[in-house]
Amino acid sequence: MKNDFFGFCIPLAKYIYILPDISTQDRTKPLLHKICAVIIYVLALFCYFSEVVKLYQIVTGEYFVYDELIRNYTVSYFHFTSLIKAINIKGAISARAFKTIIGFEDNIYNGEDEDIRKVYKASVTPIQRVRKYYMAGMVMVVICYACAPAFRDPIEIQRENETIRIRQLPVSAWSPVEEYFWLDFVWKSLVGAYLAYFFVTTDLILYSFIAFGACQVRILQHYIHNFNRYCEEIMHTEGVPKNESARLLQKQLIAMHQDVISYVNMINGSIKQLMMLEFIPGSVQLAGMLYQLMTNLNAIQCIFLGQFISCLIARIFIYTNSANDLSQLSQQLAADWFEIDWIELPKDIKMNLNICILRCQKNLCITVGDLNAIDMTTFLTILKGSYSFLTLLTTI
Fold first, then answer.
1. How many other CB atoms are found less than 10 A from the CB of residue 20?
2. Domains in the chain, number
3. How far apart are CA 191 and CA 56, in angstroms?
4. pTM score above 0.85
5. Is position 389 within any domain?
6. Which of 85, 171, 346, 384 would give a disulfide with 202, using CB separation of 3.0 to 4.6 Å?
7. What pLDDT score does 129 carry?
8. Structural domain for 102, as ranges
9. Which uninterrupted H or E stretch holds 164?
10. ∠ CA(196), CA(197), CA(203), 5° rounding?
11. Helix/strand/coil (H, E, C) string of 64-127?
12. Residue 173 in 3-state DSSP?
C-alpha cells in the first residue's frame, strides 16, 4: 500500500500490525496476521514487564539507587504509553481514520484539478519533513543509548568499608543473563530498541492523524479563496446560471467543512485520553531526563542525553504545534468566507454565509482529556512544569 501522506509510516505500522488491511481478499491472511500480532505484542509486553520487574528490584533491593530509579521510571513510562497508543491505533476508530486519509488522497490524485493537487502536496511536504527529522533523531537516540555505557561511570555504593560498583547499561530492565556483562548488554539493547520501535511508530501515526485535519482545512481554504472561479467552472460543466452554481458550490463546501469537523471530532474522541497520558506527566518525564543529565556531567554524556532531551522537547513541540495549527486554520475559515465577493450573491446564499461564519467561530481542537485544548501554551506549560519538578528532584 502506497500513500504520500503517511509515507514511510505505512511499512513501520505494518510491521507491528497497527495498519488496517483494507485490500486483501484472502481469508487466510487475517488469521495469520492475528497470530503474528499476538506474538509481537506478547514480546513487547514481556520487554516492558522486564522493566517493571527491574523497577521493583530497585525499590525493594538491598542497595537502593535513586538515580537508577529515576532512569527506569522515565524510560519505562514512555514505553508504557507507546504500547497503550499501539493498542488504541489498532481500534476501529483509527481504522476509519486510516481509510479516510487514504481515500481522501486517492480522490485528489484521481481528480482533474491540478491546483488542488498542488495545494495538497504543499501541505503534505512539511508533514513528511517533520516525520523524517523526528525519525532520524530517534534513531540517533537509540544509538546513543546503546553507546552510553561505554562512557558512563559505574554507580558506586558505599557499604561500611566496602565499595560496590554497578555498571550502567542501555536500559534499566530485568535480564536472565545479568551475571554476564556483554550478554546483558546485548539483551537490554535489544529490549530498548524493540520498545523504541513502538514508541516512534505510534508517535508518527498520531502526529499524522492530527496533521491531516489541518491538511483538509487548507484544501477547503483553497476552494473558498477561489469561490468565483469554481462557480464559473460549475456553470460551464453543469450548464446552470451563476446564482445556482454558487448555491451548488456553497453546498459542497459546507459538506466538506462538515467532513472536516466530523474527522477532527472522531480523532479527538479517540486520542484525547492518550493526550492525558502524554502531557499531564510530560513535565515529570522531561525533568527526569534533565536530572540524569545533571548527575552524569561529562562531555560525552551531555551529548548523548542532550540529544535525547532535544528529541523529547521536539516531540512535545510537534504535537502542540500541529494541534495549534489545526485550531488556528479552522478559525481562519470565518475570515476566508467573509472575504469572498458576496455582495452580488442572492439573499439565501448570504444567509448561509452567515451560518458558515458563525460555525467557524468555534475552532477545531485536540484536547487533553476533557480539559484544555492543546496549543502552544501547553508546550510552555510543560517546560515550566519540568523546571519545577527538576528543582524538586535535586532537593530530595
1. 19
2. 1
3. 18
4. yes
5. yes
6. 85
7. 92
8. 8-395
9. strand 162-166
10. 85
11. CCHHHHHHHHHHHHHHHHHHHHHHHHCCHHHHHHHHHHHHHHHHHHHCCCHHHHHHHHHHHHHH
12. coil
